[in-house]
Design goal:
24 strands; 367 residues; Neuraminidase; four-stranded antiparallel sheet; globular; alpha+beta; single chain
Length: 367
């Protein structure tokens, strides 16, 4: 057994913070390569994505097919649901997994020249059987867009053209939850290519409210999930072209803009009366990133469905992508947190070492 001198022991303690960081810091902080999934499916052009935590795969919709497909981590694509009873060329847009009820909710929309068609469908996740098809009522222009679900099985769907929110209960009964004047009180620049697109991405927060973003104004709204009361969240910058939105378990909100090729990371200290963008990362603009999915450990993935290319209808494509996204600023913060913990541990151990030496010296003098 080798004994260390006091000098050598102190030197070892100085290296403890670095050792502590090496052992304790999550590998994702230092990993240079993000998880990228390339998958192939002829003319799929998916706009919506969701994560199925039980089957451990992603679900994606389709612009040109009446299908919901699963995509594995290795890029294997399987058609999970093919609903041929729907009108031909109906688009499957937003998706949400309702794990408690073992189903997936899909927003359905028919583009011109088809007759107007806005609906929410629920399918059993294992059998693929359709549980209900709920037509979404509207007296004005309507583009059913995105969907989220609460813990009771209620779904909430945005109307991008009419700027209101539908609510569909767990049995498929639909009504308008919120048609707040807050959604239309701000001017819209008519020269924007997405000026027609109002309320878009939506996410349910466990405290009983919704967060919804508006593409053509870049605003975010907090909406009561019971009575539909809406307030505008005060942000430090506009989220122009905002599309998909997701809320992590730690309360951080992620918003993606396919028009700008951006992802924003936002925080709030007052339950979204106010919020702030604390990081912004660039995405592949050509891939037209529309939506975000969160999987285990709050890992965030963005979908590159190239939907704009598909809408133009003048191309054929087989390859699409799903890519993990992370905030470098958050990674830096985690590193410094472990540095401070490491130095604190080193100081504590050094203090214990010194006290041990003091006790030994006192024992020697007494004896």
């Amino acid at each position: 057994m080798t004994l260390l001198s006091s000098k050598h022991s102190f030197t070892l303690l100085l290296f403890l913070p670095l050792l502590f960081i090496h052992i304790s810091t999550p590998s994702t902080v230092f990993a240079a390569d993000r998880h990228v999934i390339n998958f192939r499916s002829p003319n799929l052009y998916p706009e919506g994505i969701a994560w199925d935590p039980k089957a451990h795969h992603f679900l994606v919709g389709s612009l040109r097919h009446r299908t919901i497909s699963s995509v594995s981590d290795s890029g294997v694509v399987k058609t999970l649901i093919s609903d041929t009873s729907l009108l031909e060329n109906v688009t499957v847009l937003g998706l949400a997994v309702d794990s408690l009820n073992n189903r997936v909710l899909a927003v359905l929309y028919a583009m011109k020249p088809l007759p107007p068609f806005n609906a929410l469908a629920a399918y059993d996740l294992r059998s693929g059987h359709r549980l209900f098809l709920s037509l979404l009522p509207s007296d004005t222009a309507a583009i059913a867009n995105d969907v989220t679900v609460d813990f009771k099985g209620n779904a909430y769907v945005t109307n991008a053209a009419g700027n209101f929110i539908w609510k569909v209960n767990d049995k498929g009964s639909a009504s308008i939850l919120s048609n707040s004047p807050r959604f239309t009180e701000l001017p819209v620049d008519p020269t924007l290519p997405y000026s027609f697109c109002g309320l878009n991405g939506i996410a349910y927060v466990s405290d009983g409210y919704l967060l919804v973003v508006q593409s053509n104004t870049g605003k975010m709204y907090k909406v009561d999930a019971e009575d539909g009361t809406a307030t505008r969240v005060v942000l430090n910058k506009d989220l122009m072209g905002a599309d998909g939105v997701a809320v992590r378990q730690d309360g951080v909100v992620l918003v993606v803009s396919p028009e700008l090729g951006k992802m924003w990371f936002l925080k709030s200290n007052d339950s979204w009366g106010e919020g702030a963008v604390f990081d912004e990362i660039d995405l592949d603009l050509e891939g037209f990133p529309t939506t975000i999915a969160l999987r285990e450990r709050d890992r965030a993935y963005v979908l590159y469905g190239r939907i704009r290319e598909g809408v133009l209808g003048n191309s054929e494509r087989e390859s699409f992508g799903i890519e993990e996204v992370r905030s470098e600023k958050e990674g830096e913060s985690v590193v410094w947190l472990f540095v401070m913990i490491g130095f604190g541990l080193a100081y504590f151990l050094y203090w214990r070492f010194q006290m041990g030496q003091l006790v030994k010296n006192m024992d020697k003098k007494i004896n």
